[in-house]
Each structure stands twice: as structure tokens, then as C-alpha cells.
Specification:
By secondary structure, this protein is mostly helical. Helices cover about 60% and strands about 0% of the residues.
Length: about 425
């Protein structure tokens, strides 16, 4: 039986509404833009007994009970006495735990907004410390992802005033978390990589989160102490050489030069490979976020490769943001370099081509790929590559040559 007391006679003025609001420009996700909870529908106050009841539900209630408890507390968030009772009765830790374990936490979630109000308006500075601690300990991936989202929302969505004493610490924690996520792409376990891609996925669809991430994508990532780079097994083991019914057919106009003399090419392949090794400038791999994504796009599992492709495609939509486009261009350059790498296995070249095949459908990404030397690399694979990469390169090159913006980068022989 609920002991919530509804104060029907109490006037609710604008001053009683939480003093923060979300920026309209930072709502790219439908649920953020269309599901803002706004002020409480009814002004309520909570007794000490009612506060304790809601906290018990946060600690041990069913998902529906937890949701109702958060809604009740949020509805009383205008009332100073109710919030003081909630703080005094140690309600913040279970609220934070529920927010970190929320299966669909978003910037419009009441748990997130309630935590921010307690942090900003009720001076519960240690909330930020508790959230940062979750990002630094080996907790559940969902908790780590949600903790990062809480920090990002506090700084870039609500937003936290620049003069707030905790803002610099939160920003530093966000940067360190980003670096750790990018480091996972090189040195992490499969679970670590999944966490990184999951976090990068929600960041990629939230434009206000991109700026702090883009500034770190080219930053070298030192190897963890005692860590070793993982050799990630590919799940793409069976390569089909049958043309897909969905793949663009080779134009008859191009068939004469695509159907080259295989035997002669094989005789030249080894010699040209040796010459390429002699002429190539050997540059050590830079272990940064951009190259890490290209690494996963080449050697990762099917799920991981698809996630990387979707992340980069989302970035490509921001064609007027120079920092984002610079990262996209660097990714395309790293990916194209895999096609001509003498130390890259055929299966990994095929997987790089599969990613490229998705990216070239977008005008902006196609331009980045062409500027990175995609056309000549594909043509070399068509002429001199082994059967698996050659088959895939032929398909992509044939489709690419139908695009009007390719001619200035590469002209096939007549």
C-alpha cells in the first residue's frame, strides 16, 4: 500500500521545474527528440515512509516496480524536502545501480535526468565519482557502457555548466574511457571488442558526442603493461566464388579488359610481388583508433565487421564536419592499404573488400576511398590477385567503374 501524499493544493510554478533542459541540437535519436519526459505531470511530495518504500523497490523490486519507483521519485523531484529525504536515506546508490543496469538507457531516461538533477541542483558531487568508478572497474559491459553514457550526457547534453568544479574531472574521465575503448580494438578480448563497438555505435548516432571522440582517433595507444596483441580468428572461412544475384553485373563494355589472361598473370605475380616488396616504403603500424577500426574490419568476426561498417557509415553522414570527415578519410586509407599488403592474408583482403563494397555506395565515402588509391589497388588484384580476392575485386571494380566520379582517379585500358 503506497503512502505517497499528493499535495493537491500546492501551486507549481516554473521555478519548481528542474533548472536544466536538453539542447535541441543534440537530439539525433528519435527517442531523445520525441520522448523528453518534461516536468512532473503532478506535483507530489513524499513522506519518509514513502521514500523508504521507493528505495526498497530500487534495491529489490521487479523491473516494473523499479520503473514505477523511479517515476514516483522523479515526480517528486521538484520538492526539496522529498529529495533531502531520498538523499538522507541513501537512495542515490541504488538509483545509480539501476541506471547503470538499464537495458535501454537514453538521454531522455528519467533515471539519468534524476541523477543529473541530484548532482547539479542538490550538490551530490560524489555521484560523478561513483559513475567514473564504474567505467574504471571490470564490471558488466552494460554497466560500463551506461556509465559512459551518463558522463557524456552530463557534459554534452544536459549540459553541465563550464564553471562546475567537477566538469574537468568528468571530461578527463571520458577521454580516458575513450582511449581504453580504442585500445580494446588492438589488445582486448572478444568481450572487450564487443563493448568498444557497442559504445562507438551509440556515440556515432549522437552528434554532440563525436567531437571529443574524433580528437582522439589518431592518438597513438600504448600497449597495456603485460598485454599482448590478440590474433583474432575470422569467422568468414568459406568463400563463395559464385556471383551474387544482388551484385551488379559486369558491363559488356568492360568485359574485354576484365577477362584477362590468368596464366600470364600468375607467371608475373611472384616477380611483381618481389619488386613491390623492394620498392615499398615499410612504415610501422600506428596503433591508434582509426587503424584499430580498420584492423577489426579486416580480421574481426562477421558481427564485429558489420558493426564497424555501420559506425563508419554513420560518421560519413556528417559531411560538413571536418574532424569527422578527416577520420573517415584516414579509415578509408587504412582499409585500402590492406588490399596491397603483402603480409595480409587473402581472407582478410576479401573481408576488407566486403567493407569497401558497402562504403562505396555513399558519395562521400567513395571519394575518400578513391583518394586513398582504391581503383588501382582493385585493378592490381583483378590482374594479379589469387582467386578469392580477385573474384571480389572484379565485382566491386565493375560496379565502381559505372560511377561518374571514378574517371578522374582511374581509367581502365581500352
Amino acid at each position: 500500500m503506497s503512502s505517497t501524499i499528493v499535495s493537491h493544493g500546492k501551486r507549481v510554478t516554473k521555478a519548481s521545474v528542474p533548472s536544466y533542459k536538453m539542447r535541441d541540437a543534440s537530439a539525433p535519436i528519435a527517442e531523445v527528440a520525441e520522448s523528453k519526459p518534461g516536468p512532473p505531470a503532478a506535483a507530489i511530495t513524499l513522506t519518509a515512509e514513502s521514500v523508504q518504500e521507493q528505495i526498497r523497490l530500487l534495491l529489490s523490486g521487479t523491473p516494473d516496480e523499479v520503473k514505477r519507483a523511479i517515476g514516483t521519485i522523479y515526480s517528486a523531484s521538484h520538492d526539496q524536502v522529498s529529495m533531502e529525504l531520498f538523499i538522507t536515506n541513501s537512495g542515490i546508490p541504488p538509483l545509480l545501480r539501476q541506471a547503470c543496469r538499464h537495458q535501454k538507457l537514453s538521454e531522455s531516461s528519467r533515471a539519468l535526468r534524476l541523477l543529473f538533477q541530484l548532482f547539479l541542483n542538490h550538490h551530490q558531487i560524489d555521484i560523478a565519482d561513483k559513475i567514473i568508478a564504474v567505467t574504471r572497474v571490470k564490471s558488466l559491459p552494460l554497466e560500463q557502457k551506461n556509465a559512459l553514457r551518463l558522463l557524456l550526457a552530463f557534459v554534452y547534453v544536459m549540459p553541465l555548466p563550464d564553471i562546475h568544479p567537477a566538469k574537468s574531472d568528468i571530461v578527463d574521465a571520458i577521454k580516458e574511457t575513450f582511449k581504453q575503448l580504442l585500445r580494446h580494438l588492438w589488445y582486448g578480448s572478444s568481450l572487450d571488442v564487443a563493448l568498444s563497438l557497442d559504445c562507438l555505435s551509440f556515440i556515432s548516432v549522437t552528434p554532440v558526442y563525436l567531437e571529443p571522440l574524433m580528437s582522439l582517433m589518431d592518438t597513438p595507444l600504448p600497449k597495456p603493461v603485460g598485454g599482448t596483441q590478440l590474433s583474432r580468428a575470422s569467422t568468414y572461412l568459406n568463400v563463395s566464388h559464385e556471383p551474387s544475384s544482388l551484385s551488379p553485373q559486369t558491363s559488356p563494355r568492360r568485359s574485354s579488359w576484365l577477362n584477362i589472361r590468368r596464366q600470364s598473370a600468375k607467371l608475373l605475380e611472384s616477380g611483381l610481388g618481389m619488386l613491390k616488396d623492394m620498392l615499398a616504403v615499410r612504415t610501422p603500424t600506428v596503433y591508434n583508433g582509426v587503424n584499430g577500426l580498420a584492423h577489426i574490419a579486416t580480421v574481426g568476426t562477421l558481427t564485429e565487421r558489420e558493426a564497424v561498417t555501420m559506425i563508419v557509415l554513420e560518421w560519413g553522414k556528417h559531411d560538413r564536419v571536418d574532424d569527422v570527415q578527416s577520420v573517415c578519410a584516414s579509415f578509408c586509407k587504412a582499409l585500402v592499404s590492406k588490399l596491397g599488403g603483402t603480409d595480409v592474408a587473402d581472407i582478410h583482403k576479401i573481408q576488407a573488400i566486403s567493407c569497401i563494397e558497402q562504403l562505396v555506395q555513399r558519395d562521400g565515402m567513395r571519394l575518400h576511398l578513391l583518394e586513398a588509391g582504391l581503383s588501382p589497388e582493385l585493378y592490381l588484384l583483378v590482374q594479379l590477385g589469387t582467386e578469392g580476392p580477385r573474384h571480389h575485386a572484379e565485382r566491386v571494380l565493375a560496379a565502381l567503374l559505372e560511377k561518374p566520379d571514378v574517371a578522374e582517379f582511374f581509367k581502365p585500358p581500352e
